[in-house]
Amino acid sequence: MILKCRKCHEPAVVNMRQHKLPLCAAHFLEWIPEQTQRTIEKYRLFTRTDRVLVAVSGGKDSLSLWDILKQLGYQADGMTLQLGIDEGLQYSDQSHHFIEKFIGDFWPGSILHTVDVKSAYGESIPEVARRTDRGNARPCSVCGLIKRHEMNRLAHELGYDVLVTGHNLDDEASVLWSNVLNWQIDSLVRQAPILPADRPGLARKAKPLCRCYERDMAAYAVLRGIAYIYDECPFALHATSLQHKAALNDLENKHAGAKLQFYLGFLNARERGLFTLPEEDAPALRTCERCGQPTGTTAGLCTFCRLWDKKQAVVK
Amino acid sequence: MILKCRKCHEPAVVNMRQHKLPLCAAHFLEWIPEQTQRTIEKYRLFTRTDRVLVAVSGGKDSLSLWDILKQLGYQADGMTLQLGIDEGLQYSDQSHHFIEKFIGDFWPGSILHTVDVKSAYGESIPEVARRTDRGNARPCSVCGLIKRHEMNRLAHELGYDVLVTGHNLDDEASVLWSNVLNWQIDSLVRQAPILPADRPGLARKAKPLCRCYERDMAAYAVLRGIAYIYDECPFALHATSLQHKAALNDLENKHAGAKLQFYLGFLNARERGLFTLPEEDAPALRTCERCGQPTGTTAGLCTFCRLWDKKQAVVK
Q1: Residue A240: its chain B contacts at CB < 8 A?
Q2: Which of A5, A87, A291, B205 could cross-link with A234 by S-S, CB 3.0 to 4.6 Å?
Q3: ipTM
Q4: Running DSSP on this structure, what letter comes out for residue A163?
Q5: Cβ–Cβ < 8 Å for A45, A208
Q6: At residue B138, does pLDDT exceed 80?
Q7: Residue A258: its chain B contacts at CB < 8 A?
Q8: Whole-model pTM above 0.95?
């Protein structure tokens, strides 16, 4: 049986079973931006008068997001980090190539801010991970720490109103899954499509693709003609998040929409006040004396600044 | 490698990987009651001056629980429902046989209250399920409704301080899993080792085995020599709860203790106040005008009493 597009009755190329919605390419390429706009409005992420900074990695989600926000008329600039990950794949160089190509192909003249971690701090991600020996020989935890710090720093220093990332539904659902399995209370309390800039030094953060399935974002990039880096980061191959995604896909295969229901049910529960901690339980944060960002450490530098403070890092 | 009992260095017959604790039969048969006593104290379920009513089904958990409470010196009487489930297996008759045998073998003279659903209300579980056509031709939802109502009625009418059930960790974790996957907020808020008698007509309810793995309860029954009904209820064979248990066992196989951590993490989050709804969100309950139990229906009879009110049930 050939599925027909719900809107024009041409043959469908994408069937979003979670919405019981088959669409042709043209209508699918309209639908994803419309859905993104609905998410932006529903969760009040930002408006067209806000200056938006999109964190791009060269992957399908972040490039598609930047594309969609431009189409929707938002003032969206890009930022990226040169992480210095090679592993025989020239991973970081490739990533950068796809970002440049995207700008040239789709939105020439767009502003892209680049931070080269090695130029800025003296070591690439694998180098700092090796020296400080954090995270069981895998640089993922150091990488996440540096990315979060630098994205926040740039958004804040350059005066953007909001930093947006390309996290899709599968990303959010797998983090939620992990947070629930381990009952990571503080993470559960903060997991949302928007994080307000509620501390000095903190930028507002938003995830406009949080209701879009990963496979639909891949279809969007392909149908739109966006070339993107296809490989996962070589360090992330056995990441637990990928196992969680597989478990959720098993559920989804048994019951179309399970993944979406899981995530939206959580957001509804949040709205009903289920994840509100008593005031006194909010983690106490200070301001790092070097970089000025909020930190949970009890004295001195934040975890990011300690990374580069070789004496402390070597002592461990 | 032969594992040795942690306490006496004899060969172990049970290895509780979640506690890294191999034990011989004698020490395991001591450990399960000790663990039960710790649960009773930690969650303040009841004391030795309370009159305790144990709901028994003839299965390993409820018979073992009754046995353990007797050993621990609690004033524990039993209650059971004759459900009238046959399905070619004489399921209910067999269940009752194992209960009688347990009493004769272990605790002769114990008080057992029996409610025969057909004698009391005119129809067995399969009969009322067929007539009212509830729950997609499976009587499980009607059965649960009737069991909850009758257990509560007996505990309340006979003046027991607390009704206890044999729910083990796997039961609780799989209900939690389901409550989380579907974000059943009201169920999450009420899922706990103890439910207080906080409404007129409601008995206190407690689950002293909530920290014991299902496989360990099976080992307890076998090593203690308790004969129990081995089959699942014929109607429960494809129950979602069994699928959830299988998913949790997959996790447990990858990481010993995952199931326990999932449940205990939830209880800790509860204690930190994570699942407290705003006052105005508590479901409004009335008292049923016929049976006097609390009900969420907006007028007239409760769902249980409506079951037997043929005119209403047929109208649907």
Answers
A1: none
A2: A87
A3: 0.79
A4: E
A5: yes
A6: no
A7: 181
A8: no
